[in-house]
Amino acid sequence: MRRRIVFVTLFIQLILTSIVFAETAQITNGLNYLTSTQNTDGSWTSGEESISAAEEIIKTLSLLNQTSTSGYALALSWLQSQSLETTNHLADRIFVLGSAGTDGDLLISYLDDLVRAWGGYNDYIVNNLDTTHALQALKKINYTDQAVIQAAISYLLTNQNSDGGWGFEAGENSNVFMTATVVTALTQFDTLYDFQTPINNGAAFLMGKQNTDGGFGSSPSTAYETGLAMEALIASGVNISAKSGTPYQFF
Fold first, then answer.
1. Phi, psi of 88, deg, nearest 5
2. Distance (Å, rounded) from C-alpha 137 to C-alpha 114?
3. pLDDT, average across residues 133-146
4. I need a surface site. Which of 6, 59, 100, 144 has the fewest CB within 10 A?
């Protein structure tokens, strides 16, 4: 259920990041699915995955201009009521709500004083995934301490592998999920810093991971990684072309 909901939200978001948004049967059906599967308390699914699902769906509802609906209000209320501790969930809630408050204070307190990057919790080993999520959250709220931003970005750039991709931690093999996540994050700062070379290299890695079935991932393709990769490639601004020289046709 969790993968299905995440794929639906990613699919909707990808259509909205296309050149022109138009009301389509896919959008309508996807929205109907999200509405019909929402629980009465405002959440989706159950357990810890409910938080991730709600965060992704709130983003999608916002893109679809559904912020005045009762379902959106319920989802926001439910998410705000949750007690969160991990860097990932704190960062995502900050991003979704567009405000920090105590979440922001807690997120900054998790910053490793020596490496200047983030791990899953306070005093946990820093890694690319949590650092990327934290950076996206800080960008969303226009966090003003550029020394923190620059140090975290430098950490990510240092950890880019020679093949252009990223692993979850420094020294790990590159994978589609992490590379797409970092590339998308870097594009959000490209108006302040010149990241086009690492972005291009990351995009090249992703394009090399498109499988014969059209999807992306360490074979076989997965819907989740395909959605993330396509989102990153669109955001990268690179000339996305197939090996034959024919442009990829995403839709």
1. -55, -50
2. 21
3. 93
4. 144
